[in-house]
Structures are given as structure tokens and as C-alpha cells.
Amino acid sequence: MKPIRLFAAFFFVWMTLTAAVAAADITVTKRDVNMAAGLDKNVANILVLLQDGETTDTMMVASINSRTGRSVMMRVDCRLMVDVPEAGETRLADVYALGAQKCRGMLAERTINTLLGLNIGTYVALDVTNLPQLVDAIDTVSMELDEREAAAMGLDLGWNDLTGEEALAYVRLRLEGDDPARSRGYELLMQMLYEGVNSGDLGSMLGLGTKLLGALDTNLNAMTAVTLASAVKGGDDRSELALPTQAQQTSEEPLRADTAAMQQTVKEALYEE
């Protein structure tokens, strides 16, 4: 009986490891990203991810209407549980890392398209370790710190001009009593976007982006980036959108999407004038 039990144990471990490896090497092609049909082609939707190693710290959809210049930024809560056909129910923060090396962005695109009923075909993924380089290249980024944040970072209460390393520390800051839904990474990215749009120096921002392409995982080409940046620069209708989720009974309960409500909110915000 002992050899049989040993074989059974070995087989179980082997199957578990095989499944884990397979789940972490999902292959996706452009035809698989599940882009919704019939949407206004003037509206470009771009998936933006801020990665901290294998975990997605921040995920948002930047929606830009090239006809009206209207832009909407939608943060998607990375705690959400979503269905990945090849891996089952998965936390959204872990989806990007499940893809094969050249497929991670497209896997994230497919997941968000399915969740929100969108036609995302462009993504930009930035690892937080590249934040210092990005922030230092534009000098600093101004963030408002509350009392707890200021104490934890050894900075002044209120507005501070953060260096690259301080920006990285801010994004990674986790404090007791924090709202679980809060994302300092999102706040930092939005502030950088706000400062860039209002600086009047679009050329410098685009030049910086070109320099940093090697640090990004993206399928966004330079011409599209210029077109979209010009649309945002020329428009004065900019807004942020919070997406509804199902209510949690306890903090330990997995956060699940209210898919119908999310898709209706997105449709009204992006496509109904």
C-alpha cells in the first residue's frame, strides 16, 4: 500500500504544479481580446496598469473621445474577483501575471472587455520600480499628504513635491485604517496626468514617454499616443468615474463585480451624450 500512496501523493503534487504552471502561462492573441462591437469608433479606450512585481497595484481605463475631446478615467478595483476561463475565478490583481510573456497585456484587455463590455485593444503597463525614473525626469509630482501619511514618510503635512523615490514610497504606502478600496497608485498617476496636461509642455511629455518605452509593456504606438494626447490637451471635459461593485457583508468576503451595473455605468458615461 505504501508505494501506491507514495505514487498517489507524487501524482497529486505533479498535477498541482502542472496546473499552476499552465495557469501562469496563458496564451492570448489579438483575436481573443473579446472587443465589443458597435461602439463609437471616436472613443478610444486604453487599459493602464501599474505593476508591483507580479501584482497589479492599480488598473484603470482611460477613455478619450477624439471628436469631442472628452476624457474619462475609470479606476477598476484590483480586489475584484473575475472569471478567467483558463484559470477559473481569479483576483483581478493577479490576471496580468497569468499570461504568457507576450500575452499579459492582451489577457488583461480580454478580462476588462468582458467585465465592462468595452473594446479595449491598447494597453500600457508600468512597473512601480520605474516610477522614480519617470518622476525624476519631470522633476517632481505634487501630492497632498494627510497627517498619517506625512508622519510615515517623514514629510510635511499638506502638499509636498515628491521626488521619484518618495513617489514610489507613496504608492507602496499601506497604513492601518486605510480604506481597502483606496489606491495611492491611481491618485499619483492621476496627479501626474493632471500636471502634464496643464503644464503646456506636451512635447516634453511625449518625448519622455518615447524615452521610457523600453521600460513599458505596451502596444501603444507613438502616432496614436500623439493623437490621443492632443485630444486630451485640447479638451476641457475631463472626469473620473467610480464603478459599482457588489456590497461586501464582511471585509474577508471576496469582492465581486456587479457586471450589469458596471456595464450600464460605462455605457452612460462614455457613449451617451
Describe it:
With 273 residues, this protein is an alpha/beta fold. It has one domain (22-271): LCP protein (Aminopeptidase). It is built from ten helices and eleven strands. The protein has helices spanning 2-23, 95-98, 104-116, 131-137, 147-153, 164-172, 184-198, 202-211, 222-234, 259-271; strands at 43-52, 55-65, 71-75, 80-84, 88-91, 122-127, 141-145, 158-162, 216-218, 238-242, 255-256. The strands form three sheets. Strands 9-6-1-2-3-10 form a six-stranded mixed beta sheet, with helices on both faces. Strands 5-4-11 form a three-stranded mixed beta sheet, with no helix packed on it. A hairpin with a 2-residue loop joins β1 (43-52) and β2. α4 (131-137) packs across α6 (164-172) and α6 (164-172) packs antiparallel against α7. It is globular. The protein starts with a helix and ends with a helix.
Write a compact overview of the structure shown.
The chain is of the alpha/beta class and 273 residues long.
Percent range for helical residues? Answer: 40-55%
User: For the largest beta sheet, what order do the strands appear in spatially?
Assistant: 9-6-1-2-3-10
State the total count of DSSP E strands: 11
Task: Calculate the mean pLDDT score and round it.
Answer: 83
Return Rg in Å. Answer: 20 Å
Number of domains: 1
Q: What top-tier CATH class fits best? A: Alpha Beta
Distance between the termini: 71 Å
CATH level-two architecture: 3-Layer(aba) Sandwich
What gross morphology would you assign? globular
Biggest sheet details: 6 strands, mixed
- Unreliable segments (pLDDT under 50, ≥5 consecutive)? 1-23
CATH superfamily membership: LCP protein
SSE sequence, one letter per element: HEEEEEHHEHEHEHHHEHEEH
| Tally of DSSP helical segments | 10
* Structural class label: alpha/beta
CATH topology label: Aminopeptidase
